[in-house]
Amino acid sequence: MTDLFSEDEVIATVTRLTRNRLVRFVEVDLVRPQRDDNGIVYRRIDIARIELLCDLSDDLDLDEAALGIVISLIDQLHAARHDLAFMTRAIDALPVDLRDRISAGMKQT
Amino acid sequence: MAKGPGMTTDPYATLGLTKSATADEIKKAHRKLVRTSHPDLHPDDKGAEERFKAISAAYDLLKDPETRARFDAGEIDAQGAERPQRQYYRDFAGAPDDRYQQGRGFGAGIDPSDLFAEILRNRGRTPGRDDFGGGGYAAGGADARYTLDVPFLDAVRGAETRITLPDGQNLAVKIPQGTEDGQTLRLRGKGAPGFGGGPAGDALVTIMVGDHPVFRRVGDDILLTLPITFDEAILGGKVTVPTIDGPVGLTIPAGASSGRILRLRGRGVAHAGRETKGDQNVELKVVVPKETDASLRDFLTEWRKTHAFDPRADLIKGAAT
């Protein structure tokens, strides 16, 4: 399984994507590909993100401004979820009495 | 492929519409469902992906007036619109090289000296072991893992037992009939408590089945080695054999050698809710007494002189080839 894709491969994978659209996504910083010796390359996360951007613009009729807002909120949501998961794991690893005190504290607030 | 609960073969029903829907109604219904079911807009909703797939497939079929007409005429079925597998953006959330990530730490609005914010900012986002992507448990509690040693017969017959958790609490565990070694039971809601009103995690209990001195298990069959006397082997006879459900009678045919396997049909492992049961296979093993009396010895000495029987004849021949 390759992990890096050329612009042509990305356009072939995401069927709804045109070259103009992809160029525009990169231009306005909605997608951030990587620079390689062979030029610009895309990763799997970029492809998944492009799929989502196409869903949002095609299915939900978002324009570019709305697209930027929504994707930024989704990114912030992921970051917050990630922080929460990290804290959950950290708390899980604590001794039982500490965990109990934390959950008691959470119930109070 | 199994169909999820949201998948019906009627694309109109999937979109909550009837055949008379206009193109505009189809578009609107689809847009509304995308909003409520897109996995990336609902990262915690585990059913979202299945629903979204069904919705997308239905919309693919109905958005084009030509394919819609062909479907209405019965020329193509709803299966034709299956989409290729895709990965969602949420599956990549928090990957170590995620350069779209924003708001590291808890960001503004929180006292910079706040202990947690400090820890979060300095930790470098845990590469590798991020099980968060698959729609994990942000608000739900974590799953707790346990292993449980279960005696052989309890696993085979099913049993109820309790495990004592590290915090001293007890957890009732029902071992289903026919549980196999290494099988994991999921006890819903018995894991760590959720946060902020989220559901509790599950307890995952891996069952380690112990050995039994007499019974062995091969799949759903039970294997047992049954010692018989040489007179039972020659003359045949009725003996009592233990099974996992108690002793049963078994007729040994005359002239049965060691290694011969007799099948007790339906005396093996059963599973709750399944009709078929395994068998018990009884392997015979001829055992001679340590002390042989004079009369038997005399008889066999005479018998040997007049009876040529060489069970090794084929073996010797076979070894030479």
Describe what this molecule looks like in 3D:
The complex is a heterodimer of chains A (about 110) and B (about 325). By secondary structure, chain A is mainly alpha-helical. Chain A is about 70% helix and about 10% strand. Chain A has helices at about 5-15, 20-25, 45-60, 65-90, 95-109; strands at about 5, 35, 40-45. In chain A, strands 1-3-2 form a three-stranded antiparallel β-sheet. The longest helix of chain A has 29 residues, at about 65-90. Chain B has about 325 residues and is of the alpha+beta class. Chain B is about 25% helix and about 20% strand. Chain B has nine helices and eleven strands. In chain B, the strands form four sheets. In chain B, strands 6-7-11-10 form a four-stranded mixed β-sheet. Chain B has a three-stranded mixed β-sheet with strand order 1-5-4. Chain B is elongated and about 105 Å long. The two termini of chain B are about 50 Å apart. Mean pLDDT of chain B is about 80; it is low at about 1-5, about 105-115 and about 120-140. The chains are: A mainly alpha (about 110), B alpha+beta (about 325). At the A-B interface, helix 3, helix 4 and helix 5 of A face helix 2 and helix 5 of B.
Question: Which short descriptors sum up this protein?
Answer:
heterodimer, A: 109 residues, three-stranded antiparallel sheet, B: 321 residues, alpha+beta, 9 helices, 11 strands, 20% strand, disordered N terminus
What sequence of helices (H) and strands (E) makes up the elements of chain B? HHHHHEHEEEEEEHEEEEHH
Give the spatial strand order of the biggest sheet of chain A: 1-3-2
Which class do the helix and strand fractions of chain B yield? alpha+beta
User: How would you state the average pLDDT of chain A, rounded?
Assistant: 85
- Unreliable stretches of chain B (pLDDT < 50, length at least 5) are 1-7, 103-113, 121-138
Oligomerization: heterodimer
Main beta sheet of chain A: strand number and arrangement?
3 strands, antiparallel
Counted beta strands of chain B: 11
Q: Structural class of the helix and strand makeup of chain A?
A: mainly alpha
Estimated helix fraction of chain B: 25-40%
What general outline of chain B do the C-alpha atoms trace? elongated
